[in-house]
Amino acid sequence: MLDFFSGLIGSFPYDRLSHVQSTTSFGGMENPTAIFYDADAYRRRGVRELTVAHETAHQWFGDAVTQDDWHHLWLSEGFATYFAALWLRHAEGDSAFRAEMLRRAQAVYASKATERPILDTLATDLMGLLNSNNYPKGAWVLHTLRGLVGDSAFTAGIRDWYRTYRDSSALSADFVQGMSRAAGQDLEWYFRQALLQPGYPRLEIDQRLEGRRLTLTIRQKQPPAWGTFRMPGLVLVLDGRRVPVNVNGPETTVLVENVRAVAREIVVDPDLWWLVDLAPVPAR
């Protein structure tokens, strides 16, 4: 894990790392150089590899680079959650990684925390911020970002973030600026919806066939308080045919040419880049 994270992010920030069977109110606690694991979980062999990866990733994100304000906790917990998933991809392959990201998505969908934004600056219960927004949803912010900008820009931005703020603290706006610089594009729109809007997009898709032209109408059906989301490059698969769509606003219309019949099945986001309902949508 140290070799993997060092190669992906930057050199390990400390001179040692111990894994300690200890007393802690958490499954793991990412003390710099000495990670504590719950003694009872250790005795019953309940310390998972992903937990070790999560706490190890914290040595870079949370310890060496720390959020300057607790409301920006996703810079620690979201990062550790996502980089633990990247470790799983490295160790066990893409299928294990996809299953882990789907599991994290389901945790977001099932949580009441999603009614609030990730950057919930009105929150006064600071321990209450140890929730699904800052762990799995924060991980999904990074995953979708990687899909938007590509692996090269994402990795360059992460390395620059670590190099610039190592042994110091920073805020989300600093990360936005750094990733925009690495990607060569203004990403403020993405982080504004990812961090400041609650919830996630829920899509309803209608189709109408006229001759050999299929009209898809994509509606965002999430609660109005969540706002609407931009999803550039969202892929739909219509009976095996990939159709990229730039979703922008409450309703998006797409024309698909040379179609013989309405699609029997529409799969949303088959490559798993967006925190959106991934279930197949039946034709109407």
How would you characterize the overall build of this protein?
- The protein is an alpha+beta fold and 284 residues long.
- The strands form 4 sheets. The chain has a 4-stranded antiparallel sheet with strand order 9-8-11-12, with no helix packed on it. A 3-stranded mixed sheet has the order 1-3-2. Strands 6-7-10 form a 3-stranded antiparallel sheet, with no helix packed on it.
- Helix 3 (49-57) packs across helix 4 (74-92) and helix 6 (133-149) crosses helix 7.
- The chain contains 9 helices and 12 strands.
- The longest helix is centred in the first third of the chain and has 19 residues, at 74-92.
- 38% of the residues lie in helices and 22% in strands.
- The chain is elongated and about 70 Å long.
- The chain has helices spanning 2-8, 39-43, 49-57, 74-92, 94-109, 133-149, 151-165, 172-183, 188-196; strands at residues 18-22, 28-29, 34-38, 65-67, 168-170, 203-210, 213-220, 230-238, 241-248, 251-256, 265-268, 281-282.
- The chain starts with a helix and ends with a strand.
- A hairpin with a 2-residue loop joins strand 8 (230-238) and strand 9 (241-248).
